[in-house]
Amino acid sequence: MERISEEETAPTAPEKRVTAASAVARGGPLEGVWRFTVPAEQASVPRTRHAVRDRLLAQGMAEIRYQELVDDLLLIVSELVGNAVTHAAELSPEVTTELVVRGGWVRVSVEDGDPYRPKALAADTGRTGGRGLLLVKSVTLQAGGVCDVEQAGQGGKVIWASLPLPREAP
Predict the structure, then answer these.
(1) Are 159 and 147 in contact (CB under 8 A)?
(2) pLDDT digits (tens, 9 = 90+) for 45-91
(3) What's the rounded Cα separation, in Å, for the pair 132 and 76?
(4) Coil vs helix vs strand at 8
(5) Residue 41 half-sphere exposure, CB side, CA atoms within 13 Å?
(6) How far is CA 169 from the centre of its chain?
(7) What pLDDT band is residue 38 in, cutting at 50, 70 and 90?
(8) CA angle at residue 36 from 34 to 40, to 5 degrees?
(9) How far apart are CA 138 and CA 132, in angstroms?
(10) pTM for this structure?
């Protein structure tokens, strides 16, 4: 099985490197930026979801207070990577997921090479499928976050969602 390509794009300086446990002890997860690039194929959906989950847990989000956030982010990743694989693979042989933990927020974005900017479809009980982006928007808004679609530098698109880290209980 091909290994998922993971790249840490904003490494922590060695003298400032801290463990996930010490980051959580001081109030939050470790910050950073990671990119996961996978082939645009169905097997990449669970592979990317697992890679993002493992990274979130490694950054200190294994505590119960982060469980809902992690679940929401994994659902978002699954939907966005699944959409890219299903709808953009012809124009985009690879899909890149970026995970950013910074400033009290977690942002996940999925970039592909297809320039088509999808729209969230209204709920239609007579139709199966086609509501992944609506689900992403709904989950994001319920979590107090924001999401959008932007044009990427190479003519493709980036779909992203940012969710706030949960506040510590008083």
Answers:
(1) yes
(2) 999 999 999 999 999 999 999 999 999 999 999 999 999 999 998 88
(3) 9
(4) strand
(5) 6
(6) 25
(7) very high
(8) 160
(9) 10
(10) 0.83
